[in-house]
């Protein structure tokens, strides 16, 4: 799949990695526009192809009182406004078969969450919209097993599938990125490294997911060195007060320095 086939994507000839970045969840219009504007300014300067990410709802929650969203239609309309305001593509995750067609009216890429990537009906529904389908590798799955998820998309008549690695569960409250999986998964589809979710520490006794944001640059650098096609980074201007996944998000103020360093590494890798 050519990245340039995605509507509104920029800098496709820069030989850079592409970036999916934004808040974990759409909390409101102002915050989404603020984050998108800042990330776009940085990625334009560095010539990084950019797709704005935001979940229109959060179905996988630790507790029943956890934030799940501001309403499906409201959040999807905000995603559309981000796209129209800044002329950029957008991605959101879906959780039910009925979400596929609904979300496809508003965004350019449909993402299948890691816990749901084996759900055939959901993957097929996403594929049948004709949108790019971003398949998150389950924390419980091997890199080799992702070829079957990709094949479901292809067998549904859609050749536009990506794989995103978000770590593998080793123990009850931590995940590890096995970089041996990147070249394996790249045989099946363009492969993205989800830097921030790989640093989650789920299943905390409080019911609130923890994380290691201090390790974001370490994981991202290793991904670039190992030729990932893209990076996935959740970012927020106030992570401590974000309504979802604040513990492992990158502060928006730190994004420019991180991406600048990663572009330098990518240029070096490209010369090898």
Automatic annotation (TrEMBL):
GO terms for biological process: lipopolysaccharide biosynthetic process. It is found in: Cytoplasm. InterPro entries: Aldolase_TIM, DAHP1/KDSA, KDO8P_synthase. One of its GO terms (cellular component) is cytoplasm. The gene is kdsA. It is an enzyme of class 2 (transferase). It comes from Kordia antarctica. The keyword NADP does not apply. One of its GO terms (molecular function) is 3-deoxy-8-phosphooctulonate synthase activity. Keywords: Cytoplasm, Transferase. Its EC number is 2.5.1.55. Belongs to the KdsA family. Pfam families: DAHP_synth_1. PANTHER family: PHOSPHO-2-DEHYDRO-3-DEOXYHEPTONATE ALDOLASE (PTHR21057). Residues 8-269 form the DAHP synthetase I/KDSA domain. This is 3-deoxy-8-phosphooctulonate synthase. It catalyses: D-arabinose 5-phosphate + phosphoenolpyruvate + H2O = 3-deoxy-alpha-D-manno-2-octulosonate-8-phosphate + phosphate. Pathway: Carbohydrate biosynthesis; 3-deoxy-D-manno-octulosonate biosynthesis; 3-deoxy-D-manno-octulosonate from D-ribulose 5-phosphate: step 2/3; Bacterial outer membrane biogenesis; lipopolysaccharide biosynthesis.
